[in-house]
Amino acid sequence: ADPNHSGAYGNLGDVLAKMGQYERAAEMFTKQLAIREHPYYYIARGLVYGNLGQTEKEKADYLKTLELDPSYAYAYNNLGVTYHAEGNLPEAIKYLEQAIQTDADILSAHRTLGNALAESGREEEALAVWDKALEHFAPGNNAAVADLTRDKLLFFKWRGRYQEAAGLVETLRSAGGLDAETMCHVAECVYELERFDEAKAWYTRALKASKKKDPYILVSAAGFYEHGKINLVMADAYYIKALQIEPDNYEDYIRLARVRLRRRLKAEPCWRKAEMLLDAVPLPERTPCYHYWRAECLRGMGRPEAEEAYCQAVAEAKDYQVCATRACYDAFFGLACLYAERGDTEKARKYLENTLAIKNDVEYRNFLRLLDGGGAAEKEDGRGFWGRLLRKIFS
To answer: Are 257 and 299 in contact (CB under 8 A)?
Structure first.
């Protein structure tokens, strides 16, 4: 065997990468590059570095690829995708646009560029990118059409444009893009349009398609039965099923505790488990979403620190346009509920209006109707306001 045969090292690196042995794969590609520089070898090693979380080395290899071959479209694409994952949207947009200019057939470049533009607040440009890509891929590429249409559906959903999202169903159906998770997103949109029977039908399909093994779909369906088509027994069952799959999810323990309160069942074990899981989250990982859920837990346990935690979630969620900052409008809603519990309807309405300014959610609209119709609800045993509130909202 020839130890200087670069192709052997490359082939072995490819095999090791497919097996998930990324460190050994990187060693093979490095040996290969020491014998012969080639754009493909650099991009292959860059992908391996990406899987190892070594993004600076990853980007350096993609740039080296372009130094050797400026027409290597996938290097532009991979740089754009990496910068997007890092949150560097200007660099992501720059490289993704170059990828599409070099090779318009790279689907991930169109999809990621649309998302990067949307996250930069350039929403009409994002829609234009997706629409142009749909025209490009439409003749015969159903998989691409499904992916791009799904991106548009999520874009509309997260911005409260539920009618436009629901209007994409037929395109998705024609392209074979109605998988279980997509059906769940459709259910969430028609629920927000207050078409509850239609939402129930979509949830039924999504649950069947996922064999009730997808925690996202289970939790979404549970929320529907908790807030929309009221069936607290089913909501309870779906939250439990989700927790069996993800037993360390503090959000679902809090959701389950709310349902248990409304069912007049013991909720304290759920609150305590959620608090224990929240306390175990390392400081660097305590995001605005974390502070929101901590506030929910504290409020459920009747603790005065809840208000401060809600305010911290709001303060740290700077950019209201990015869907990842849903902690902000959730925290505003939590503050509205907190002040309604205290009988301060003026502050409750103020925070509810802040919530609706960010997301026009059916639950938030119904809460406003309740406030306008009769002021603050009575407390029940000091902590049962949430259950009484929702029973009044959805009765």
So the answer is: no
